[in-house]
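#dry-run=false #mode=assembly
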Amino acid sequence: MRLEDLLRRSALAHPDTVALVDGERRVTYGELEAASDSLAVSLFSHGVQRSDRVAVLMDNGVEPAIALFAILKAGAVAVPVNPALKAEGAAAILADCAPTLILTQDRLMPLCSRAQEAAGGVVPMLAVPAAPEEAAWKIALPPAGIDIDLAMAIYTSGSTGEPKGVMLTHRSMAAAADSIAAYLESRSDDVVLSALPLAFSYGLYQLLVTVQTGGRLVLEKSFAFPHQVLERAAAEGVTTLPLVPTIAALLLNLKDRPALPSLRTITNAGAALGEAQGAELRRMFPQARIFAMYGLTECARATYLDPRDLALRPTSVGRAIPNTEVYVVDAEGRRARPGATGELVVRGPHLMQGYWRRPEASAAVLKPGANPWERVLYTGDLFRADAEGYLHFVGRKDDMLKVRGEKVAPAQVEGAILGCPGVAQAVVVGVADPVLGTALHAIVVASDGQLAARDVLRHCARALPDHMVPRTVEFRAALPTTASGKVSRRAAATARSEVMR
Amino acid sequence: MTDTTSRIRAFIVENFLFGDDGALVDDQASLIDADLVNSTGILELVSFIEAEFGLSIADPEIVPENLDSVARLAAFVERKVAATAAADA
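#status=ok
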């Protein structure tokens, strides 16, 4: 099954049902189908050919949804790019995937131009019209391809900070959407409200699962004004609320909270929900089922905890999602005993094909499985499974941190800090934070005695997306090193926790 | 520039722009659209206003109409200060 067929089926079955809500705008399945058909035709006129990459750099809303389906209908590969990335971050993605065209919006044209300048290439940019014209006739599009073709390359941060494009076929994405819809028991009367960026795998699947089940998706640009978002949720009769722990914290922070009587499903992913957060959400929304989940861009989703188990196993992310398997392996790649910590491995129809143009990085995580024809995904995440197979997250194999549910490579932040004049050395560590999950703390050795924390932060704020800007900066005369003389992030983190105590 | 406006500007420049006041030229511009303030930044902004101007801000008042530009923030603070003064009189 190709992803655009999910939309075609829903548009055929109930063309007048509202599919998307974006502020005052409501778009039906019929309109979404027609608008994406007509944009697909304009993609051809902009020179897009089958298998070309087309970047989508837009705020959440109706336009990026139209854009994604139009790209798929044209047989091209969609590359969603988060507009919260600064020009440098977007440039690294554009340079890597070499798109034929960038679909964007007026507000983000300057960012796109700066990113293109930094990437050293210029391709056409097209602002997707706010009011898509409705086609008066049925447009006959040429065949787009088959479902083992690539649908998307979704970029994720590597451990040294370089972006890697996760290649996903139509078939694997449709399999993930099927599995998610099955365990969430998604229904055509679902009303999902999402403030998660569509450039984020978790945000993107809100769109795919909703379109597959024929429900309604209310797209919010951010969760900056939580009371207002909840009022809108109440007015729309929202049934489903996907969260990351930072959004959950903002929600729980409200004293005067609009009631959501229709709410029946809350999901959490991105980072683990705190035990207290889970308990408070259960108290606040007693009628809602709360799903603690774990996933990664490389396979969208890997595990979920049955909501009935949350009270009993508040720190578990459950077991494999339907039609997939997960297991923990030891350092030799053998299945680990219950209770032993090891790397989580995922098998199923939802895995990526590899990283765009990075055969070595791909081979490092997609390894031969039990059957000669299959490859399995090594997640880089350490877990332990209890006797009944329930999984508990332990940590990362590498130094990767999660800030606001987003992956951050400390090495990338350190690289940016080292670019600041007056900095000799830098190391970045994570510090527990109730809202962010992890806050970044930079330890800096200055070569210029006049250098202040704000100089370092200002430099970072210009180069990095804001979740990657350290919250605090500390100056030291020297950084702790390992026996071989390398700067030790682990020793720096330990020294930091002693200071805190 | 009023005193309220300059105090609000000074906080935003120091805390979100780390002293780079060239990035905040237009008092009417949306702080969110310009990527100057994010969802956790709004919380910090609310705490600052409560402490700096001795006000108490209710959840339903945390909306873009009140908070999403220097000019809107200043007008909101001045309205709240006047209302508090009237209630105390």
